[in-house]
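Can't paste images in this forum, so I'm doing it all in text. The chain is below; anyone willing to post the predicted structure tokens underneath?
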Amino acid sequence: MVALRGRAYHHVMATTTASLAPSPLRQLRSRALAAGVVLAAFTAYSLWVVAGHGIFGFITLAFREPWAMQLLLDLVIACSFAIGWMAHDARKHGITLWPFVVATMLVGSIGPLGYLVWRGVRPTDATPRRA
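Text version of the structure:
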């Protein structure tokens, strides 16, 4: 009888806990919202910097300052990993990847942030594709 009660209690707790957890779609949309806020703020700041220092200002700074070159190389490495992750994820979810790869190569982190926003707000099918 005790074992039966334990199972019944476990079932009730598992059902109650599962109903309190946010759905995967809701979690995805909230992550997309957070990425959208970061995307908007970072894009605005990037445009301000480009307006003041030119589109290639970072390259002249990178050749002048070793820390700036280190940051530039670090950004290239991080964006390469982001492209790899996006390629895997886009295949899995049936998302067209090339606009985000081009954006990543041209404007850095804005590409992956845009991908996260798009992934969270686009219409989804019920079954994601396997990689």
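The chain has one domain: 23-121. The two ends are 47 Å apart (CA to CA).
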